[in-house]
Amino acid sequence: xxxxxxxxxxxxxxxxxPVGLAVAASLAGHGRDVTVVDRQAKGANTSRAAVVHARxxxxxxxxxxxxxxxxxxxxxxxxxxxxxxxELVPVRFxxxxxxxxxxxxxxxxxxxxxxxxxxxxxGGRVHRPxxxxxxxxxxxxxxxxxxxxxxxxxQYVVAADGMHSTIRDLAGLGHNGNEALSLSFTLADVRIxxxxxxxxxLLFFSKPGMLVVAPLPDGSFRLVAEVDxxxxxxxxxxxxxxxxxxxxxRATVKVSEVIWGSRFRIHERVAxxxxxxxxxxxxxxxxxxxxxxxxGMNLGLRDAVTxxxxxxxxxxxxxxxxxxxxxxxxxAEAMQVVALAHRLTRLAxxxxxxxxxxxxxxxxxxxxxxxxxxxxxxxxxxGHR
Length: 385
Ligand SMILES: Cc1cc2nc3c(=O)[nH]c(=O)nc-3n(C[C@H](O)[C@H](O)[C@H](O)COP(=O)(O)OP(=O)(O)OC[C@H]3O[C@@H](n4cnc5c(N)ncnc54)[C@H](O)[C@@H]3O)c2cc1C
Description:
Blueprint: E1 8-14, H1 18-29, E2 34-37, E3 51-52, H2 54-60, H3 66-70, E4 74-76, E5 78-83, E6 86-92, E7 103-105, H4 108-121, E8 126-127, E9 132-137, E10 142-146, E11 151-159, H5 166-170, E12 179-194, E13 200-206, E14 209-215, E15 221-226, H6 236-246, E16 253-270, E17 275-276, E18 279-281, E19 287-288, H7 296-317, H8 321-348, H9 355-365, H10 369-380
Parallel strand pairs: 1-2, 1-11, 2-8, 5-13, 11-18
Antiparallel strand pairs: 3-7, 4-7, 5-6, 9-10, 10-11, 12-15, 12-16, 13-14, 14-15, 16-19, 17-18
The structure holds flavin-adenine dinucleotide (FAD).
Flavin-adenine dinucleotide (FAD) binds at residues 14-20, 37-40, 48-50, 108, 130-132, 160-162, 166, 187, 262, 283-284, 291, 294-297, 300.
């Protein structure tokens, strides 16, 4: 509760989404004094980002959650691009040089719970509901004010307050452009009867359009498709139509329930800078892009672990250059990820006249082992080591 907010802390983390929780767990693990606040009275309980990639799991080892997380998800060793029943490109994660040779399918609410449990094990907690409304800073400190009238003084402030970040905007860490691609996507977590693989992510490049089908640990499946006009809440008939027109041909797949659904448009942007004095950006506050390849939360979690390490060195040794290095390297990685997600989106949503040509080209490219390996490295982000 806000009345228990300390008046001083070493690091104030604004936002307790996956990124804020991971920064806080990292700092608590380094023995630093960290305070985490969130505007919501309770954490979100929806599945949202459902993919955790190999490189992210490698980095999450530093805060001691990788094995726990890996045990709670589906370890999908294969990703397959298809046209109906015909495989165009098989992508093998099980050939990657990593301790985690798969893409982990795990809903975001479980990932957040694992991170929160870790933070609490390390003696931390989240103060809720606390809405940060103002920030000022000088060379030594920053002060954040809250809607309750509370004020917290911190040596550093982490803006992990998501896409519409207040702290980012107040600290003047804006971005050029906020391009929304003119594409509309639907997302539905569904229960089905029938033949879909339980441990493989499928991306259908069908004539009527693209469709992602990915298994979730409770036996349900995540469907994502680009559609002309996404419904606010997809229903069973809508999900069934997507599978019938874009999914497998031979298998009979019956949708019995839509558990959760949503729709979204794609914004593409990266903050011009990740640091302004005592304020640092991480996660969606710093970058937004297409969900193609499931990179968004992954990039944010990697920001979080790197930033937690950098802040602990800065606090311990006064090495501010670590923070500048974080700001530069993480921004450079974001630029690459945004470009990759853009390319994948353009490929997946190619105009219908071009689709047969695209699929033919992909089938040819799939014979080149280096192409398949590169795709696996890019998706898993092991190429960013
Ligand atoms: C419907 C939906 C579906 C998605 N699907 C996918 C997907 O399939 N794959 C994928 O990679 N990503 C997906 N995402 C995006 C993914 O959820 C984000 O990338 C991820 O949550 C980013 O984490 P974050 O911690 O940076 O920000 P957030 O999760 O947005 O967390 C920010 C937190 O800051 C808090 N906050 C905001 N302002 C303040 C304030 N002023 N004071 C205090 N607290 C504040 C918020 O309450 C929130 O808890 C989806 C998002 C949505 C909404």
